[in-house]
Each structure stands twice: as structure tokens, then as C-alpha cells.
Amino acid sequence: MSLLAIGTVAFDAIETPFGKTDKILGGAATYIGLAATRFVKNVNVVSVVGGDFPESYLTMMQNRGINTDGIEIKKDEKTFFWSGRYHNDMNTRDTLDTQLNVLESFKPIVPESYKDCEFLMLGNLDPEIQKQVIESLPNRPKLIVADTMNFWMDIKLEALKETIKLVDVLSINDEEARQLSGEYSLVRAAQKIMAMGPKYLIIKKGEHGALLFNQNEVFFAPALPLEEVFDPTGAGDTFAGGFIGYLAQSKDISFGNMKRAIIFGSALASFTVEKFGTERIESLTEEEIDVRVKQFVDLVQFDIELENSL
Amino acid sequence: MSLLAIGTVAFDAIETPFGKTDKILGGAATYIGLAATRFVKNVNVVSVVGGDFPESYLTMMQNRGINTDGIEIKKDEKTFFWSGRYHNDMNTRDTLDTQLNVLESFKPIVPESYKDCEFLMLGNLDPEIQKQVIESLPNRPKLIVADTMNFWMDIKLEALKETIKLVDVLSINDEEARQLSGEYSLVRAAQKIMAMGPKYLIIKKGEHGALLFNQNEVFFAPALPLEEVFDPTGAGDTFAGGFIGYLAQSKDISFGNMKRAIIFGSALASFTVEKFGTERIESLTEEEIDVRVKQFVDLVQFDIELENSL
Asked: Locate the Carbohydrate kinase PfkB domain: which residues (chains A, B) (predicted)?
């Protein structure tokens, strides 16, 4: 297996009802990489940062198993910066500031050593860039997973549709699924979106869990009921990284294995929200992950024997 | 087992984005009874209707296994009437009209033949009336389940707390759990509410499923992703009726069996929302229920082996 992830590596400044941070490490590819390396080592990341990006962050990522050779450093520019404030429900947020900086002219360069990848994770980015990455690979990966957001549906819908055509698994949230399909029912939305290309669709519902669809099946994974959601930033990317990392480790892309991958992704995401930024996901132990996955098993398992053999 | 259900038997007039009804059969006890009789026959219902209540509705209820002897008919008064309009999301609604009519002076009279009940379902009603019913029984039932709503939290909170003290299982929705506890986190809300008396708490989250808590465990049942939610009226009462009916049939009130009861209740509720009013739940077959329950199993089942034996 080889796993390539593309996405932002960024600074975030976050306000929640529980506190606020200065500029801390953030970005989709950061969370994806930190989650995926729980399952596979040498996760290849393609991204771009500015000269202001601390060496210590790169070192931490390397120590956790991320290959940072593909993270371009533009010495005279500044790192992408996002700042947001979460509302009391922690499901909605206001963007306070977005400074694209290095992202404005980002042309991802996939190093030669990364190109023979079996698993490709396209973090949320301009869909044209996502497409360029797919087209830059000499062989089609075994599995392409893409994340996106409503922003691209608003301003680059046609480009987004072109990219979606090329991916195997699309990961979006419930409101985005409704926007992209024009259907309120998530079942109908899923059918319409899968007709656009992806064989699988993940619909993330935040504290309400996630749905995985293919043409004939649907799987639901709950989110763990937590006493406190401290900071939701990065939860979706952690989920995606855990999902593709688990699949890459097991080299099995059956629906049954995708269910397991969703549970592991959900378990990792449930850690990310416990502290600000990447703090919790950086320090996780194997045993903590297993205990958490066991909690998911206990949360949903039940035992019913039906009289009719169905 | 004997199962006693108390609640409204009513007329509803419903508007949804898909259409509207004239006055049709509704009421908490109606849905509870129609659901519970899927599991146990002779569900004893205590309620009140007016002289305008059609005999044919009572006959239908009797044919479905509901004992209507406890439904008082006040010939010179009118049946409780509720009218509401659902918004596009089908999760929120406006009440257009409420005519209490017979409910205004409702003093539930539990027939002698009903009094030795093992399972008691208190449908949403004035908490003082719910308490009177509990106190009118010579022996405490094996299990008391109560439903309530934000309306009573707004105007009769102290009385509601007195009633809650006496019940085993409280069933409310997520917003009501937050209102009753003053906690946003449902985990914290559940702890606070169980400290008020109930050993078990069910938090209904509509299209997002339901949670069952006791002091040490939590179980999550999803709602089935449906192509269309046609009319949510009665879904919560159907769920409650299925829940207590299943428990009464199996005479097992362990947490493990409550999980199964939640799944059966959710399955029945998923039918209720497919058509207006009681139409769908009236005509259900055993096999349809089993097929639906199997869909719940398929929706959430996954198979993970953890390396550490936890």
C-alpha cells in the first residue's frame, strides 16, 4: 500500500465557548495525515506552507510517520490562515478571517516517489486542483476518496462535478449533500450524488454520526455521545484520514471493510474534538483507540433473533 | 403481563409539504395502543373522547387488540383537537389550533379490571394527571414509562418533577432533555435527569435516532434513512408503544432487552411516518415488521476484532 494525501497545512485560530487559541497547527492534510498514520506509516502528504511555518511542526509530523517531502515551503510567503468562532451548539461556526496566502497560487507538485500510490485522499481544496492531482498520477489509484465543502458548490460547481466524476468515495456533510443534490431526503440525495460518479458516498452529520451509501446498501455509524465537544475543528478530516488509513492498512475496499473504516474514523474523530487543534490526536495511544472503538461497539450492538429467516 | 396506557385519543388535522388532511384519528394513546398491540393483545387504554368521536374508530382499535373500556365518552362534549403544519425539514412544526375540549376536565378513571397492571405507559399529558394515575394503582407496576413535552416544562415544571420521580423510564426529545437539565451535552443532560428519579432515560432525536441511558451504559439506535418522511405525527408515541409493548411481551426489563425494545419501537415508528396519521401502522403485517427490523440490523451491524482483549 501507499497512501497519498493532499490538502491544506495551515494555521488556525479558534474560539469556542470554552476558550480560544492563538495561531495553532491546522489544515485538512495535517489532520488526515495524523489520523492515517495510526494505521499506515509513511503517509505521503502534498501541501504548501510559508516561511513562517515552524520547523517543529514538520518534525512532529515526521515523527508521527508523515512524509513531508511533498510539503512545499515558500520562504517568502505566509502560511494559509483560518480563524473561526463556534456557536454554543458547536455544530455551527462563523469564519472570522481567511488569509489564503500561499494557497492563492498553489500548484501541487506530486514528487516522483509519491506517484505510484494505491490510495489517494483529496482533502478539501479547489476542485480544479483536486482534479489536477488525479490527472498527474500515471496509474489510477485503487481508491480515490475526496472531501469538499459548500464553498466550492457555491463558486465552482461545474469544476466540482468534473472532479466528483473521477472519485470513488465522496465525503461531505448533510447540508452539503442537500445543496449538491437539491434533495432534502438524504436517501434521495445519496442516489443523485452517486449518479454523478462516486460509487460510495459518506454523509457526515457531526454529532449525529455518519452514513455510508453505495448503490444497494447503507451503513450508519453514530458519533460517540461525549460529555463535552471542546473543539470540532479537524474532526471531519480526522475521520477521513482514519477511514482511508484503515482501508490502506487492510488493502480491502469491500463495503464490509468500509464499515469498519468508518468506525475507526469516527473513533479517531471523537478524540480530536476533546481538545483544541491536533493536541489530542498527536498524543493518542493504540490502547486508547481500541478502548474507544470498543465503546462504539457497545453503543450500537444489540442482539435480535427474528422468527422468520430473512 | 398486562399493559395499561394512558394518553389522548384525539382528532388531528395535519399539513405537510406533501399534502393536508381533514380531521383524522390521532392522539398519543391511539398510537401507543396501535404499536403495543403488535406485541401484546388487550392493551388497556384510559382516555376520554367526546360524542363526536366515531364509533368506527373505536371498532378499529378494538379489532387491533386495544381494550377501549377505559375510553370515557362524554356525549355532550367534543374530542380533543390538534392541528399543525410541518416545515420543509419535517423536524419542526407550528401548531395552528388546539381545542382541549374534553381534555379540559379530564380526570382519568382507571377501571378496576385494569388496575393490576405490570407495565404502565404514561403518554404525554398534564404531569399531575400522570401522577394521579400512578397513585391510583394498588400495586406499583413492574415498569413505568412516561412521555412528556416542553409545554409542561414551561408551565408545570414542579409538578413534572414530582411525576418524574416516580417513573422508571422517561422518554423525551433532545431539546426537551436540554431544557429540563439546563445542559447542552446530552450525556450531561442524561446524568442530571436520571438524578431526578428515572433509572432509564430515552432521548429521541427524530431523524437522528434515539439514545437510551442508564447509570452506566448508553445505547444508540439510528432512525432508518427514509426516502421520504411523509408525516411525523405520532412517531414518538408509536416508538413508545412499541418499546413498552415489546418489553411487556418478553417480560424482561434488562438493559439488553431494552435495546431490542428500542429497535422494535424505532422500526414501528419508521412506518408511522410513511403515511398520514395511523394509516400505515394500522395495516402493518408481521412480516413487514421483521423485514424492517432486519434493515436496522443491516444498517448498524459491523464486525471488528480488536487485538487487545478488552
From this structure: 20-279
